[in-house]
């Protein structure tokens, strides 16, 4: 296995990315992002939607409900926040 210590290289490329919709912008400097994924039902095989909410850091309070955003995994910022908003893919009308 490759060593990724101080000389081995950056761990930044291993961070997860997600795309989702902002469902709440009420917390200060934070947004709640709903990420939907499709999974096959265990018995019937039909694809069903599963949704998970992530709390993401929004330093300038620039994202609002309905915006489609890209979030990236980061160090723990609070009890629930482990993600940071990278960019807006689509703005709400």
Radius of gyration: 16 Å
**Mean of residue pLDDT?**
90
How far apart, in Å, are the first and last alpha carbons? 48 Å
Tell me about the largest β-sheet.
Answer: 5 strands, mixed, barrel
Principal-axis shape:
globular
Strand tally: 5
Structural class: mainly beta
User: Order of strands across the widest beta sheet?
Assistant: 1-2-3-5-4
Tally of DSSP helical segments? 0
Write the layout of secondary structure elements.
Elements: E1 17-24, E2 30-40, E3 47-57, E4 68-73, E5 83-90
Parallel strand pairs: 3-5
Antiparallel strand pairs: 1-2, 1-4, 2-3, 4-5
Write a concise keyword list for the protein shown above.
93 residues, mainly beta, five-stranded mixed barrel, 5 strands, 0% helix
Task: Write up this protein.
This protein has strands at 17-24, 30-40, 47-57, 68-73, 83-90. The protein has a five-stranded mixed barrel. The model has no long low-confidence stretch (mean pLDDT 90). The chain contains no helices and five strands. The termini are far apart. With 93 residues, the chain is mainly β.
């Amino acid at each position: 296995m490759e060593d990724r210590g101080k000389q081995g290289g950056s761990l930044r490329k291993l961070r997860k990315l997600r795309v989702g919709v902002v469902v709440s912008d009420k917390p200060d400097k934070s947004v709640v992002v709903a990420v939907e994924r499709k999974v096959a039902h265990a018995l019937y095989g039909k694809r069903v939607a599963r949704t998970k909410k992530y709390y993401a850091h929004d330093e300038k309070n620039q994202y609002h409900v309905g915006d489609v955003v890209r979030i990236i995994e980061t160090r723990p910022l609070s009890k629930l926040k482990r993600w940071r908003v990278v960019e807006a893919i689509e703005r709400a009308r």
